[in-house]
Amino acid sequence: MASGKSKPGFQGKKVISHGDIKKMDPMQRARHMAYEQPSKPIATSLLMTQNRLREHALKSVQEPKKQMPDPEQEKQMKVVGQLKAAEAHNRLRLMRLRFQFMRAQEIKYLISCQPTAREAIRLEVFLPPKSHAVKSHDSLRPLQRERVEQLLEDDRGLATNRIS
Questions:
Q1: H or E segment and range at residue 14
Q2: Does the N-terminal or the C-terminal CB of the chain have fewer CB atoms within 10 Å?
């Protein structure tokens, strides 16, 4: 594959012909080409790219920092953010409602498929189609609540036992 010739000035470096390079598998070719000098067109394009990068770096250092957006733009961005948040909240609410509806339909179907009425009633008791959220409303005022808690904490009955 490799010829025994070596370039003058390079000891141990074998010159490989273009045809031999084409015969190599891609991994060997990549390893070999990684240590080769780039061709003239590639070297010029690399040089041009490096020059453009240097110029861009100098421009970015010389340019003053961008000014803050005007207040009107900030207000508009804030409104857009609020609208997006409202849309996301609405999507979640609709998805939750859709899930609850599908769950209720599935439970109703399971209840209707029971072989006996007794089993259907039992399943309905254990799996209600709609989950009713129990809202706990405290009917006691804070002073009444405190008095009830004192009575509950009285283990020896000192607050309720009266001597007559």
A1: none
A2: C
Range with lowest mean pLDDT among 5-14, 48-57, 123-132: 5-14
Quote the CA–CA distance of 74 and 59 in Å, as a whole number: 28
Angle (CA) 25 30 14, round 5° = 85
Contact 15, 7 (CB under 8 A): yes
pLDDT-based confidence at residue 31 (cuts at 50, 70, 90): confident
Tokens found for residue 83: 């609208």
What integer pLDDT is reported at residue 38 of this predicted model?
82
In one letter, which amino acid is 26? Answer: P
Place of tokens 């490799």: 2
pTM above 0.70, yes or no: no
